[in-house]
Amino acid sequence: MTMTTNKDNSHGAMLAQSVGDFVKRGADLPRVRALTQTHAEFDRAQWRQLAELGWLGVLAPESCGGLGLGLAEAAIVAEGLGRALTPEPYTAVAVLAARALEHSADTPLRDELLGGLASGECVPVVACHEQADDIAARRVATTAAPFEGGFRVNGNKQFVIGAAAADGYIVSAQTGAELQLLWVPRDAAGCNTGLIALADGRSYGAVTFRDVVVPREQVLVSGKTARAALDRALDHAAAIASAELVGVMKCAHEMSLDYMKTRVQFGKAIGSFQVLQHRAVDLYIQQELADAVLREVVSQLDAAPDDNTRALLVSRAKSRCAEAALAITRAAIQFHGAIGFTEDCDVGLYVKRAMTLSAWLGNGRAHRVRYALLAAKTEREAA
Amino acid sequence: MSDWNAMNDETFRVEVRTFFDNEFPQQYKFLPRRMRWQECRDWYQKLSKKGWLAPNWPREHGGMGLSPTKLLIYFEETERAGVGRMPDQGITMVGPTLIRFGNDAQRAFFLPKILAGEAIWCQGYSEPNAGSDLASLRTEAMLDGDDYVINGSKIWTSMAHDATHIYVLARSDKQAKKKQEGISFLLVDMKTPGITLRTIRNIAGHEEFCQVFFDNVRTPKKNLVGELHKGWTIAKGLLGFERLNIGSPRRPLQALEKLEALAKARGLLADAAFAERLTQLKLDLADLGSLYGRYVDRARRGEALGQDVSMLKVWSMDTYQRLSELLIEAAGEYGAIDGEVAMGDAHIDVLSPFYNSRPGTIYGGSNEIQRNILAKYVLNLPS
Fold first, then answer.
1. Looking at the structure, do residues A79 and A179 belong to the same domain, yes or no?
2. Min CA distance, B327 vs chain A (Å)?
């Protein structure tokens, strides 16, 4: 694996080593297979372990107990967790929430949340989406009405990955024309978390806020800065979700290639049939395109010159990685034949994780639509 | 009994629609999986009493003898009403096979039992090491007195746990020069001592198929279909009926119904790019209907279906998968959710067509195998 990092390459190499060791354990597969029955998508002990490895705090500033590294390093971790099918909400917390907090106002609450995030003691989760295909979460009907001492929040949020584990939410809400990000503890009066089961046994939170009282000191950031913080956090999270997808697709394709070498029909390994060879190669090309765009994007994102450039890069990555992961995992069923369609076969677990990761934070189609709109805008501005 | 084919198409459609809407049990409409026998027994009997159970059989054997146009209407209304898929192999495969290859005694004994719901069939074809390479099967049947004695095992036997009978391909002559020679086609009562089942769960968690074990299972000589050691011809004839059945537009229609409902609920039809893709798939299905009609006509005239019937299966299952994939894509973030999803007024199970369509390119001869068959036909290659 080659990588460029913001600070120095030894961090990347060390991370790659520890991620490789974690993946090799393969400890998450039995748990993931049982998820539809157990719903145990969050294991506190495993979360603490991810924190001790420094992975949760990979982006968080060193002053808050994090490593203060960049997206290239976060991608190394995410790819490994994708391979291992780890169900814990790494990207939702260590990237989406971390980035939203990092660009919030410099308050004691922010530092406390970032510190808790990096140490694994607090699980903050962003709740900002209200409608599907709204990548940047711009449609905000949730309101934060001012009153003496704070705000009253009313509204509904959807598609909240990590809600099962959340200790509280970073909620987007409108106060008049101004967007705010507010911290709402999960157990705040009027805050209710519903869980909707996903294909891979994890869940989306459907979080409702009914007259939730938010004291002024729980406002994280307001106005244009809030919009900018959320935009950037969502883009960075979509890029790292793409890294998880790369891990999922590589592992699934390796399983297919291994199977093609061992399954014998008509007296030979099925991998000797040209039709399957070509199919495997076409999918390998998709995998390498996905890996290449991901590496390029994560190396450029931290220093992207403007919002448009950043969003275009991210949409390129998510579109390719989502489609490639879906194509590769679906084909893995076909390569494995009937056994690939059984509950007992690991292939199905990868298919399902590819489905949930590609849908979350905008699927391939949504990102291509956004790319087309932004590319046109960029051209207009250049003209 | 009415002559359905003499009826005006619209009159026939209204009659079928009214019957399905009024009589199919509400609680099983749009079931995301195949129906179990205990769930569909009453419906099966109801169809049987009305003479509507076997739309594809000739009238002289108790079927409806429908013309291609009427048969398509029947299937369209089946899917529009959300009528579930029953254990239907007796109707779609065994009946037509006995009509073509069986003897009078076998037809007189088994056809009425199929129509009465007393004989529910499953298919003893695939084995753990004989999937695409079916002719390498090892289950054997040896004559002993007045019985054939069967030993071995079959796998991926759909709905075997609901079946009363199984048709088995077994090796009756181990000295035969070619592996396709020395195979016989036998009918077996599932209650015969020596048969045991192991159910297998599919990727969606449903117990859809089984492994069937045969330990000195005796079936009388009269249950041999066609000649001894010449079962491969009959096996292929039955596969032709299976390909005609799988190649009908019925299953893809199930996905199209859901896709159109979702497009409406999400307001996607106003999006020209989406409308074009949806239309492409609708036309793929409409044109499949036209091609399908040719083969239904052949079957009605009692002609051999020919190897080219594989085209139907390839295109039908390919279209089914593309429809189910567009359904997920069009669902955006909802495309990750397991089970029914509420979108506006609609409740749509987004993922079930995906799961249901996956084995379609594997079972009944994988689409790769169908293309090999077609290549021989199209290029006139030696077999």
1. no
2. 12
Contact A337 B362 (CB under 8 A): yes
Task: Give the mean pLDDT of A3-16.
Answer: 66
Whether A39 and A182 share a structural domain: no
Indicate whether A26 and A139 sit together in one domain: no
pLDDT at A25: 83
Place of tokens 């955006």: B332
Which chain A residue has its CA at the smallest distance from B203's CA? A343
Q: In the 3-class helix/strand/coil scheme, how is A67-104 assigned residue by residue?
A: CCCCHHHHHHHHHHHHHHCCCCCHHHHHHHHHHHHHCC
A338/B155 Cβ within 8 A: yes
Q: Does A196 touch chain B (CB under 8 A)?
A: yes
Residue A2 lies in a domain: no
Q: Does the structure's ipTM exceed the value 0.90? A: yes
Question: Number of helices (H) and strands (E), helices first, in chain A?
Answer: 12, 10
Do A243 and A217 belong together in one domain?
A: no
Band the pLDDT of A5: cuts 50, 70, 90: very low
Using one digit for the tens of pLDDT, what is the confidence trace for B53-87? 999 999 999 999 999 999 999 999 998 899 999 99
Instruction: Specify the fold of B4-86.
Output: Butyryl-Coa Dehydrogenase, subunit A; domain 1 (1.10.540)
Domain containing residue A164:
125-223
Q: Are residues A195 and A265 in the same domain?
A: no
Is the same domain home to A240 and A371? yes
Question: Would A158 be classed as within a structural domain?
Answer: yes
For residue A125, the cross-strand partners are: A169
For B326, the closest chain A residue by CA position comes to: A365
**Residue A4 C-alpha, separation from nearest chain B C-alpha, in angstroms:** 32
Q: Would the pLDDT of B229 be above 80?
A: yes
Q: Is the pLDDT of residue B1 over 60?
A: no
H-helix or E-strand containing A285? helix A274-301
Q: What does the pLDDT look like over A292-327, one tens digit per residue? A: 999 999 999 988 889 999 999 999 999 999 999 999
What mean pLDDT is reported for chain A? Answer: 95
Domain ranges of chain B: 4-86, 121-231, 247-379
Quote the DSSP letter at residue B90. Answer: I
What confidence score (pLDDT) does residue A13 get? 86
**Whole-number Å distance between alpha carbons of A246 and A243:** 5
Q: How far apart are CA B296 and CA B307, in angstroms?
A: 14
Q: Tell me the angle at which helices B272-300 and B310-330 cross, rounded to the nearest 10 degrees.
A: 160
| Residue of B114, B160, B366 whose CA lies nearest to B168 | B160
In angstroms, the CA B86 to CA B313 distance is 20
Percent of chain A with pLDDT strictly greater than 70: 98
Architecture in CATH of B121-231: Beta Barrel (2.40)
How do A219-222 and A178-185 pair as beta strands? antiparallel
**Do the domains spanning B121-231 and B247-379 agree at the CATH topology level?**
no
For A:322-341, CB contacts with B below 8 A are: 326, 330, 333-334, 337-338, 340-341
**Domain tally, chain A:** 3
| Cα dihedral: A287, B329, B274, B319 (round 10) | 80
Q: CA separation (Å) from A296 to A62, A191, B94, B130, B221? A: 25, 40, 58, 45, 70
B242 is catalytic: yes
Q: Is domain B247-379 given the CATH code 3.30.420.240 in the classification? A: no
- Nearest by CB: B338 against A199, A326, A330: A199
Same domain, A144 and A234: no
Closest CA to A182 of A211, A222, A228: A222
Residue A4 pLDDT greater than 70, yes or no: no
Averaged pLDDT, B144-149: 97
Question: Cβ-count burial of B305 within 10 angstroms (0-12 exposed, 13-18 middle, 19+ buried)?
Answer: buried
Q: For residues B143 and B150, what is the distance between their CA atoms, to the nearest angstrom?
A: 9
